[in-house]
Amino acid sequence: MARKNANGAAAELDAVVVGAGLAGLTAARELRRAGRSVQVLEARDRVGGRLLNEPIGDGKVVEVGGQWLGPTQYRMAALARSVGVDTFPTHTHGDTLAEFGGRLINFRGSIPPLSPHILLDFGRAQRKLEAMARQVPLEAPWEAPHAREWDSQTFSSWVEHVTFTDGARRIFEVFVEGVWSAQGEDLSLLHVLTYVHSAGGVDALIDTGGGAQQDRFVGGSQRVAERLAEDLGDVVTLGAPVRRIEHGLDHVVVESDGASVRAARVIVAIPPTLTGRIVYDPPLPGRRDQLTQRMPQGTVIKCMALYEKPFWRERGLSGEATSDVGPVKVAYDNSPPDGRPGVLLGFLEGRVGRELGRATEAERRAAVVECFTRFFGPDAAEPYRYIERSWAEEEWTRGCYGCYFGPGGWTSYGSALRQPIGPIHWAGSETATVWLGYMDGAVQSGERAAREVLTSRPSAAASGSPPAAARPRRGARAAPPRGPATAGR
Ligand SMILES: Cc1cc2nc3c(=O)[nH]c(=O)nc-3n(C[C@H](O)[C@H](O)[C@H](O)COP(=O)(O)OP(=O)(O)OC[C@H]3O[C@@H](n4cnc5c(N)ncnc54)[C@H](O)[C@@H]3O)c2cc1C
User: Fold this and answer.
1) 458 and 386, same structural domain?
2) I need a labelling partner for 439 at 20 to 30 A (CA). Which of 53, 185, 428, 450 fits?
3) What pLDDT shows up at residue 258?
4) Could you tell me if 27 and 173 lie in one domain?
């Protein structure tokens, strides 16, 4: 039986969306544009999910979640433009640093001057990887010509097999940790191939200029989600974690701590692992549930040190560094557009993130600042502020950057990832076919899930009648109204 909402009756809508990350908000916007009634139920007391701005004074922010935009991430770029959020280039002027094999090397461009043997070995393996990746059909990776063979091995075992130098293997290790915040032994080779294809190549994933780290959002990436939510108004209910979804042939009843909503369809726009923590009545088919048991999140702690000014720029350094020592293995200049304050960003990813996740914040701060000092000199030793976010600790995310498949996952369960179950549809960055795992992928997934709802047979909700929004229950809050800063777009 449907629970009653505060109005005394379960609300009847065309669709409910679970989760107010980019995927859920995009889906809701598309449904609204098509004239459908929709309610978004969000567990947290804010929108944006894996996007989160942290104020640093003077109205400026840094992002402790996703932040960069790459040149071929067209959907995210268009979405940001549509809500009036501008971008600016990541600071890259000056020398980049590579700490490799115990040496700190300054260089320009994207290829560090390592031994030719290592570069040749890595380059050859990269080309092989990309050639294999192009053979993976993005809509159905399990149908790739060598899907079973590729899905039956880890990325590490493949790297071990195709490379000859320890140096090339160490570059691949930094690559895997930087892109998936996991280790090569965690990931199916087929997953890596799918991901690489969905991004357009290895360089597209790792490069700053010309790659996924090229641009940043003025005012922070979360602003995109906030503006989407402002446009949606009271369609978004915060503080409403969804606990249970009752579903029939032509209806769902979605129950959260904050509201109970009856609708024709539901779009569940949360990481696949978390979809398995909702109770479904009747229970989902075993295959779909087993999928949720096989898509763990990576482990990342995003750390930033703040300084009065970006002192490294005066020394001709870009602020970008790569290290095979760590614990910070990739670092960037993450200062606001005007360069005040100076912000160094470092990631603790994969194994390092798991280990340092058990340390205290003071210990992590010391470890991160020690790395920055090794890279950029003694001025890095005394930041006036340290900021970090450990995504594994976040109840409504439980890891980052996203969920991945280990060996056997894609070929056994991949086709259940997007497959609707009756009136239940799935969205979220992990379900994307382009820029899988990125903001752009989240937007694509929201658009696709909305299309599925719009092209499914006519909804059971009273079409033509005004939207009957669910009344918030105790503890639930509507998203704040759109403020003057966003007016006039
Ligand atoms: C540290 C970090 C760095 C990253 N860097 C980048 C980057 O530079 N560029 C890039 O493109 N991407 C980056 N990403 C990835 C990017 O942030 C995500 O791919 C994208 O934001 C995912 O959006 P989503 O809507 O699919 O999921 P989410 O953002 O996870 O949204 C899901 C929403 O559902 C809510 N929710 C969960 N469970 C429930 C429930 N039971 N009931 C109701 N609500 C629920 C959550 O609170 C959340 O708001 C990064 C991520 C992290 C964490």
Assistant:
1) no
2) 185
3) 72
4) no
